[in-house]
Amino acid sequence: MQRRALLAFSLAAPWVAPRLARPARAQGAAPLPVVASFSILGDMVRQIGGDAVAAHVIAGPDVDAHSFQPRPSDAQALRGAGLLVRNGLGFDAWVDRLARSAGYAGPVATATEGLTPRRLEGGHGHGHSHGHSHGHGGQAAADPHAWQDLRHGRHYAGVIAAALAAADPARADLHRARGEAYQARLAALDAWVRGEIGRVPEARRRVVTSHDAFGYFAEAYGVRFLAPQGVSTDAEPSAAQVARLIRTLKAENITAVFLENMANPATLRRLAAEAGITVQGRLYADALSPPGGPAPSYEAMFRHNVGLLVPAMLGGAG
Ligand code: ZN
């Protein structure tokens, strides 16, 4: 019954949860070593685990995780880890190869497990005509960028909190309580995003970005994204694709054109120049910024992106 009392206490007052870590540490419990495949997952692990985890992030800030080459130090971190957190849906398949080569046999949490992924084939107006897709060739491609919908972000947080609790049973209640507090923050942020996007007339909710990272954002928040580079960053758009997009920009008077932090800006800069459009800034898509930058956390990434998108879409109204 002691355990039950502690759980009730944690649920009733999640804001005191971080204090619970201190007695545990004082008794000698070391932080749980956790490896996260890329920066957004690393942030979630730290938000939930706090002082009770020591997170190693493989694909760090501003790094393109689509085509990533792990370093020897990543294999070493994995050998000492008590938990590996990956996105799945083919986004970070390289981490599976790394885990095999490092001989990692510990638990693996897949943040997208249990989600119904957005499919890339069929039903989408804009071109995913490049040959490369995520994941293992031949499979129907699932869009891996599920974190761009905050409801899915809450799902990620639930998966991570449960995995931390399972890997670190002495502090399971702490991880669950902090996971729930984090999920509540993400729910509030989701409501804020809906309110902000709601200020933009539906006909103005159109944006051009470097690659198709925002499909989930588009469906969740009712914004249409056009991308010359397709859904992965490893394929260059054809001249015909770029020309078609320029015609669309002009015909539909789209002025909200953005770069992404981890994608090659050359194609989009050329496209904007040819269309006579000013690039409005840099969205954070697949990676966070370094700590001093505008998007050092998953939550800050949404505030930054929405803070850029809304005025840019409204600006085209005049
Ligand atoms: Zn991407």
Number of helices: 11
User: Which fold name fills CATH's third level, the topology of the largest domain?
Assistant: Rossmann fold
Q: Which molecules are bound besides the chains?
A: zinc ion
Q: Helices and strands: which structural class?
A: alpha/beta
How would you state the average pLDDT, rounded?
84
DSSP, total strands: 8
Instruction: Provide the spatial order of strands within the biggest beta sheet.
Output: 2-1-3-4
* String of helices and strands: HHEHEHEHEHHEHEHEHEH
Gyration radius, in Å: 21 Å
Q: Share of helix among residues? A: 40-55%
Task: Tell me the major beta sheet.
Answer: 4 strands, parallel
Count of folded domains? 2
Question: What is the first-to-last residue Cα distance?
Answer: 64 Å
In percent, how much strand structure appears in the residues? 5-15%
Task: Enumerate the spans where pLDDT stays under 50 for 5 or more consecutive residues.
Answer: 1-27, 122-138
